[in-house]
Known about the structure:
The structure holds 2 protein chains of 2 kinds.
Chain A: E1 4-6, H1 9-16, H2 23-28, H3 62-66, H4 92-95
Chain B: E1 4-6, E2 11-16, E3 19-24, E4 29-33, H1 35-47, E5 49-50, H2 52-56, H3 64-76, E6 80-81, E7 103-107, H4 135-148, E8 154-160, H5 168-184, E9 188-195, H6 202-210, E10 213-218, H7 223-229, H8 239-252, E11 259-264, H9 271-282, E12 286-291, H10 304-326, H11 334-345, E13 359-362, E14 368-369, E15 383-384, E16 388-389, H12 391-402, H13 423-430, H14 441-461, H15 464-470
Parallel strand pairs in B: 7-8, 7-13, 8-9, 9-10, 10-11, 11-12
Antiparallel strand pairs in B: 1-5, 1-6, 2-3, 3-4, 13-14, 15-16
Helix pairs in contact in B: 4-5, 10-14, 11-14
Amino acid sequence: MKHLKSLNNKAHLLDAAEGTDEREEVVAMQTIVGCTATADPGWEIDAFGGLASLCQPMESDLYGCADACWWPAQVPDTMNSYPEWGSGVDKVDQDWRRIDGIVEDDR
Amino acid sequence: MGAMRLVEPNLHRVDVHSRQMLFHIPTSGLFELDALSRDLLALFDREGSVDETALQTLELRHSKGDIRDTVEELRQLEVIEAPGQAVQINPDPVKIKRFPLTTVVLNVNTGCNLSCTYCYKEDLTTPSKGQKMALNTALSSVEMLLKESPGQPRYNVVFFGGEPLSNMALIRDVVGYCEERFATLDADVDFTLTTNATLLTEKLVDWLDEHRVGITVSMDGPKAMHDKNRITVGGQGTYDVVKRKVEMLLARYRSRPVGCRVTLTRGITDVEAIFDHLYHELGFTEVGFGPVTAGDIAAYNLTDGELKEVFAGMQRLGERYIDSAIAGRSLGFGNMHQLLTDMHEGNKKLLPCGAGVGLLAVDHQGGINLCQRFTGSDMPLFGDVDHGIDKPRLAEFVEARLDRSGTGCETCRIRNLCSGGCYHESYAKVGDATQPTYHYCDLMRDWVDFGIAAYSRILHDNPSFFATHVSPRRSA
């Protein structure tokens, strides 16, 4: 689209689908089962958001395991022990080769 | 082409400093308008209906071709309609046949060692009278989850109460059972619980850590605020013991971030002071706020004025979140993080939450409820764990909420984000969970507008924030 500048992810998808028959699919896309926007009734179940519609690729979850999120996995904890672990390698889908391991003796 | 009109229910404009954003309601797509699209929409605002002659007035500033392109873009988005063009406001009604359950909430004990004045739990009682869930019921619940919704890659088992830690024997048995059971299915299982923290011990924390049981602590802020409502059965404030336990928990527990849930009730509205204490002083990873507006005991509900104060405080705290985000840091303000995640992805919710579709709660006797808030209520059960889900009735309920026709949500600009609000709030307020919650619609719309502006500002000043802190770490 020329006169509407896409800002969020959904807008970019809509833009990419312009003039194709995929637009209806984009309209239906990302209809999630999640908590309502604020007063957040389901929040107490998990402090860090949804219990359904969880994201699929590991890349989108890696730091969810490491810091301010909710996912449990064996990765270094960036909140307390290894705050710098993710520095400079923030975009997991691109940086994954550069993400380093940690040997406990290095502390 | 005849005269065209705006499709008001499909667009919402938000001014952000000198820029103007268009929130595309049917998709939750967010766009920035250029000078021409702004002028064009303003023309519709002035004229109501716009024909070729009216469009020509724009030719003083814009080329004919550009005007035509812009009209076409907005028509494709169904933001403007030409005569004879069918536009859609809400999705067509659907029949619910499948329940992709991933989560079961077990009400492991109706008893609680605290008696917080505002507690919404309808089956709440003291520890001595607590009805504990039997192991058989718990295991049947897990089996029901698997039977009703096989083949999911990941399941969640949530322990709720009462105070869940007052039935640790059951939790240990269920966790042990699930770890084996789900391993044979090649599915992951995730455990979480919400606790008042008072019963935590070092040994218990280590066990929870070892089994990666996610922990949310209910705590309401600094001593004076916390002790106002969060009291023992005997009436004593619990701040001192909770603080000590939380410090021990945060020092020992490593497997997952620990969040804090704050309940805001009458007289407790200072969101910023509460956040500063819990986040900066005690060190929770994330702090989220739940305002009580529809509790059973009206005296604890925030007044309309207080609710306004709460949202104003959330916006002030939100401004700090924005400043941090622009500086490249993520502030652990849960409500804001969730709002921005929805904004960034362009998430849409046809239902307000997963209750009844992705999640069900089991009461201590095995009865199936929409969520943990309904256990012990007068709302009829949706089956039980031995005989399975009463699917026709559950479908009927969900379909009633999916159908927005004739409700205040039908053309509301945040209908795909709020989706009518919490079932239990409606149930508590008007006795009917199929109705939307109408008592803070204006505040919710303001909050979403704040989110649109916040998102646009952060994206403008620090576009990498979302790729770094929101997308990889998103929660929904």
